[in-house]
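Hi all, long-time lurker, first post. I run a small reading group and we've been trying to get comfortable going from sequence to structure in the token notation. Rather than ask abstract questions, I figured I'd post a concrete chain and ask someone more experienced to write out its structure so we can walk through it together at our next meeting. Sequence below, copied exactly:
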Amino acid sequence: MTPKQRAVIYRMILETGIPYAVADATVGEVDAVGIEAAFVLALNRAGSSLMSNQQDRYAKIALLIDGRRYKDLKVADTTLSEAIDFEVVAEDKLDQTSTTVALASVVAKTHQEITMLGLDKLYPEYGLAKNNGYPTQAHREAVAEHGLTAIHRQSWNVA
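-- Answer (accepted) --
Happy to help. Here is the structure in token form:
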């Protein structure tokens, strides 16, 4: 899917008012606890955000995750006085069989692109608008030439 196609679908999602949440883990969190644990932190934040916007605070919320390796993941809303466990459905290629997950992929990718466009203005020498933060050859060369910044994971050698 092209960025232009994603933008059209993203606008449609916004216009429908479908509830969703996007949450990030900071670079510092990823460096401190690792990418997997940081992923769980972000999931907890997203789930908690959805719960706080629910009319019925005890409605069943399931987290649908594209990736079977997360099938035993335990996620709970810790913002409430009592933790509410979320049902976790994790399957490989779930974005190909679930419209909800496919739309979530559009939201996540669009969020990443918007974030990288903003960071590209601060750090244009890294080409973040083009590489979206992925360690492409050009990005690795920029790191080798300019070094790591505060937005780079210090624990992961991209050069």
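A couple of things your group might point at:
The longest strand covers residues 62-66.
Helices lie at 3-16, 27-33, 35-52, 99-122, 128-131, 137-146.
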